[in-house]
């Protein structure tokens, strides 16, 4: 049974704040990469492409964590909580909206062997 958790965290910066938000999110990467449970943690920004013209928030974190518990521990780190308080929850923050979702790669009713 896979315990991995996949997180997609999307951010909508306030107008004119796109670069500042991207840089602020990039600043979270080095310490997060030091966490043993962090498998993948990369912030990306949307670019124009004729083959992918979907809509969505322009800045997205792609994360893979070893387990749900370790993802939740990451979310409770002071650096992460401070980021959300300053940039998302504060009326003076640079982010208009954020959408954070977690996923599993396991199908429903997967009968993984017990080891």
UniProtKB/TrEMBL annotation:
Keywords: Monooxygenase, Oxidoreductase. It holds the Pfam family ABM. Residues 5-103 form the ABM domain. One of its GO terms (molecular function) is monooxygenase activity. InterPro entries: ABM_dom, Dimeric_a/b-barrel. The keyword Signal does not apply. PROSITE patterns: ABM. The keyword Oxidoreductase applies. It comes from the Bacteria. This is Antibiotic biosynthesis monooxygenase. It comes from Halomonas colorata.
């Amino acid at each position: 049974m896979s315990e991995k958790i996949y997180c997609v965290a999307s951010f909508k910066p306030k107008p004119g704040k796109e670069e500042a938000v991207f840089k602020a999110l990039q600043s979270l990467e080095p310490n997060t990469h030091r966490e043993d449970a962090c498998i993948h943690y990369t912030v990306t920004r949307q670019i124009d492409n004729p083959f992918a013209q979907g809509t969505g928030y322009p800045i997205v974190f792609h994360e893979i964590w070893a387990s749900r518990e370790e993802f939740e521990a990451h979310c409770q780190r002071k650096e992460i909580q401070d980021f959300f308080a300053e940039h998302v929850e504060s009326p003076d923050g640079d982010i208009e909206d954020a959408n954070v979702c977690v996923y599993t790669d396991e199908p429903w009713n997967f009968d993984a062997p017990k080891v």
